[in-house]
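Hi Q.,

Before the meeting this afternoon, I wanted you to have the zinc ion prediction in hand. No need to reply - just skim if you have a minute. The sequence and ligand are here:
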Amino acid sequence: MTGENFAVTGQLLGTVVAVQANFYRVQMDQEVGEQRSRGAEEKLDLNAFLPHCPTAASPPLLLCTRRTRLKKIGQQVMVGDRVVVEEPDWAGGRGAIAYVLPRQSELDRPAIANVNQILLVFAVADPPLEPYQLSRFLIKAESTGLDVLLCLNKSDLISQQEQQQVSDRLLGWGYEPIFISVKDGINTDQAGRYLNNKITVIAGPSGVGKSSLINTLIESAKLRVGEVSGKLARGRHTTRHIELFELPSGGLLADTPGFNQPDIDCIPEELIHYFPEARKRLAVASCRFSDCLHRDEPECAVRGDWERYEHYLEFLDAAIAHQTQLHQQADPESTMKLKSKSKGKGQSQYEPKLESKKYRRISRKTQLQDLQELYRDEE
Ligand SMILES: Nc1nc2c(ncn2[C@@H]2O[C@H](COP(=O)(O)OP(=O)(O)OP(=O)(O)O)[C@@H](O)[C@H]2O)c(=O)[nH]1
Ligand SMILES: [Zn+2]
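Predicted structure with the ligand bound:
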């Protein structure tokens, strides 16, 4: 099923903003609101995959069920999905999801479709900016393949000079952070503009000011959310309750429960691509071996004098350890084979191709199981 199939007159499009039991809360597109208020049967802009700007007269929010046909074909509906709604009951606020449009991206944890970017929030002080922790979060964010936006909050606590030092250092990592202060209202508008008409997931350690930033960004949404669920309740969300909050300027924002040390569980040979400064090196030169892990291999284009190389080595160990563990859980025999095969090549020898295939298979399977579990629980 392709997007073109929906380019017909009269389809009602919306975005799933929350899943509750076997109901889906669907924020209808702006055009739907306008069309409804005009009472006209006009052609809708069906090319628009992104959420639209709410105006004073916000488009309706419908509580929808999923058509039996979707259940039969095993089509799951995720938060973030663009959907076609049929049989709207505007007065009762109800509808039925008839189709799910093709997804542009699919995040695993939190399970959200069509996310455009990750907004990583850290503080420059209180809690102090810890490079290793920041690096870990950045790697995790980069591993989603989505755009990564870095906001450094509490800039009111440091001097211009200190800010410049942090800025220079992070530029060496390949990032241009936005320095903000929610407390003093510095650059929060600018940060907000990056979220326009996009689906953004916000992440970062505890105490850096995520709640404060969210509250600043979504004053109006907070009120509306208040009517539905009682309160914004950030931090209490589990992966089982994911919600997208509408930004006044358009766009949707999802909050993730705080976690302090995200696991490095990526495929070892892909890890290097999550470092922008290493990506830059690999764009202009190649390692001698295509399966180079950039440790002690000869003629490596990556190894060298860059600040986060130490982080890379440490995360690589973590990624390999994670994969070995996965391997053992899934298939103890093949791990044995792998081990004996590696003998004689040196104890740190590692077989990337075999492992990564295996990993991908397991990963997709667990992903599916997670989802199935989620829906079983909810139905
Ligand atoms: N100095 C200063 N303090 C801030 C700023 N923004 C937030 N804070 C304070 O930092 C503390 C933590 O803010 P929160 O918004 O709760 O942080 P959080 O990231 O949501 O924390 P968790 O809910 O634990 O994930 C609060 O006491 C805020 O008042 C800022 O720009 N400057
Ligand atoms: Zn290399």
